[in-house]
Structures are given as structure tokens and as C-alpha cells.
Write a structure and sequence with these properties.
- This protein is α/β, with parallel strands linked by helices and 270 residues long.
- The protein has a single domain, classed as Spore Coat Polysaccharide Biosynthesis Protein SpsA, Chain A.
- Helix content is 39%, strand content 18%.
- It has ten helices and ten strands.
- The protein has an eight-stranded mixed beta sheet with strand order 1-9-6-8-5-2-3-4, sandwiched between helices. Strands 7-10 form a two-stranded parallel sheet.
- Strand 2, helix 2 and strand 3 form a beta-alpha-beta unit.
- The longest helix has 20 residues.
Length: 270
């Protein structure tokens, strides 16, 4: 089930206090982000401090070759943990690694590139009272999107392809701002194998299969980055793999109830 939540709904109709939500973990993947990581962590920390809940920020340095790891470790913030490894594995692997290391009731995936305005964070988390998963979407009518026209065009084409190949009823899978009930995330992650950018597509494909309740919320996003041709090709190949496992082999359908799926190598063993 997918619901669209408007700004007015988030502002006026969600009455559950965030303090009742329990603990929150923010997983922030980053690769070669020395120019933005300090600001990204500071903004997330500031917004979370204004929410009446216990929280942690888990920064996952995905094999950066610059000073990202050193800068993140230098902050000495007791609410920040830094996980790192030497070889770049991909955004999906970084998110899985971070999620594996959470113990909170709720997990937020937040890109470390500082493109997303976090003023909606409290209401974003509050929406979990109504869902297993909350997905920010550029296609939401209340969203504010300041990105290149080419990026918007490619995003639309990509999401049309995703809908056709996977059956996901969403018009935007790739915004790096998602929240999960941790128990729902664990159910999903047991079947995830994509390591790079199509990770989000696979997560939402499995969530659809498992009939997780998804709420779509608006987002404010500013950014100039574009995917390179190599990443686009890799994403297309990964989506073909997801569609093959879903529609041809029906692998997800056969294995989602098993504790240890056969002939399967997850990103990280849960």
C-alpha cells in the first residue's frame, strides 16, 4: 500500500509525538565527500537534537580516497559513529553496512552529499507512525526541486522503466532520504543483493512483495550532480537482474520466508 502525505497533513494531522517513536539511527553513506561531510553531519545532528528522541548518526565511508574519513573522525561527537573500509563497494553496500550496525527502533537513510533540506526531518520521522517505510519523492506535488532539467528528465525516464520492470507503484525511488521501521528493514535486507545505486529499487521491490506499507512525502532538494554514463549502464544492468529474479525466476517469492535463502549471497549476512 502506498499513501501520499502532503505538507499540510504533516503539519496539522500527525498528532503522535516523536518521543513515542523511540530511538533513531541515521545511516549516512559517503564517498569522497571531504567538501561536504562536516556540514552534512552538523545539519543532521542539529535537526535530530531538536527532536525528543535518542539518536545516532552512522557515517559509512565507502572507501573514500580523500580526507572524508579523517574529517568525520575528527568531529568527536558522541552521537556520531564512523564505519569505514578501504575499497569502494557502492552505495548499497554502505547502506547495508550501516543498517546492520543499528540497534534503534527506526532507521533513516540519508545521502551524505548535502543536497536535501532537512527541515522536514521531524515530520518525516513522525510519518512512520502510519507506515513501515517513508519515501521522499521529487514527484510529490508539494516537493521543491532545484536540479538540472537533464537530471529531472533522466529521473522520469528511469522511474518509468522501474515501474514497468518491477511493478513498484512509485514515481521516484532514488531520493536519498528514506525511513524504515527497523523490523521491516531487516525483513527486506535479508533478500537484497544489489551493491550500488539500484539498491533503492531492490529494497522497494522487496517491500512491495512483502506488502510493507509505504508513505510518500515531499522533499526539498537542491543539487547539480549528474550520473556518469558508466553508472547509468550499471544501474540498468542491476535493474534487469532485479526484474529477472522477480518475474522470471520468481526468486524473491520463493525465498522471502526462508531464514537462509538458497543459492544467494546477500550483501551482508543478517
Amino acid at each position: 500500500m502506498i499513501l501520499n502525505i502532503t505538507y499540510n497533513y504533516l503539519l496539522c494531522n500527525i498528532t503522535v509525538m516523536v518521543s513515542k517513536l523511540g530511538t533513531v539511527s541515521v545511516v549516512m553513506p559517503v564517498f569522497n565527500g571531504e567538501s561536504v561531510i562536516k556540514k552534512s553531519i552538523a545539519q543532521a545532528d542539529e535537526k535530530l537534537r531538536n527532536i525528543d528522541c535518542s539518536y545516532e548518526i552512522i557515517v559509512v565511508d565507502d572507501g573514500s580516497r580523500d580526507a572524508t574519513r579523517r574529517i568525520a573522525n575528527s568531529l568527536k561527537n558522541p552521537n556520531v559513529r564512523v564505519l569505514s573500509y578501504d575499497v569502494n563497494q557502492g552505495k548499497g553496500f554502505a547502506l547495508a553496512m550501516g543498517a546492520l550496525n543499528t540497534v534503534s527502533d527506526y532507521v533513516i537513510f540519508l545521502d551524505g552529499d548535502n543536497d536535501i533540506n532537512m527541515n522536514m526531518l521531524k515530520r518525516f520521522i513522525s510519518a512512520l507512525d502510519h507506515a513501515d517505510i517513508v519515501v521522499a519523492s521529487k514527484r510529490h506535488p508539494d516537493s521543491v526541486v532545484d536540479v538540472p532539467v537533464l537530471r529531472q528528465f533522466l529521473s522520469l525516464g528511469f522511474n518509468v522503466l522501474v515501474r514497468l520492470m518491477t511493478g513498484i507503484k512509485l514515481w521516484d525511488t532514488q531520493v536519498g532520504f528514506k525511513a524504515f521501521r527497523r523490523d521491516a528493514l531487516i525483513d527486506i535486507m535479508k533478500l537484497v543483493s544489489v551493491r550500488k545505486y539500484a539498491f533503492d529499487v531492490e529494497v522497494l521491490t522487496i517491500a512491495t512483495l512483502l506488502k510493507k506499507k509505504v508513505v510518500v512525502v515531499p522533499v526539498e532538494i537542491h543539487g547539480n550532480a549528474l550520473f556518469g554514463g558508466r553508472n547509468i549502464v550499471r544501474m540498468f544492468v542491476d535493474i534487469l537482474g532485479i526484474a529477472y529474479r522477480l518475474r522470471v525466476k520468481k526468486w524473491y517469492q520463493k525465498n522471502y520466508k526462508k531464514k537462509a535463502p538458497s543459492k544467494y549471497k546477500p550483501i551482508i549476512r543478517w
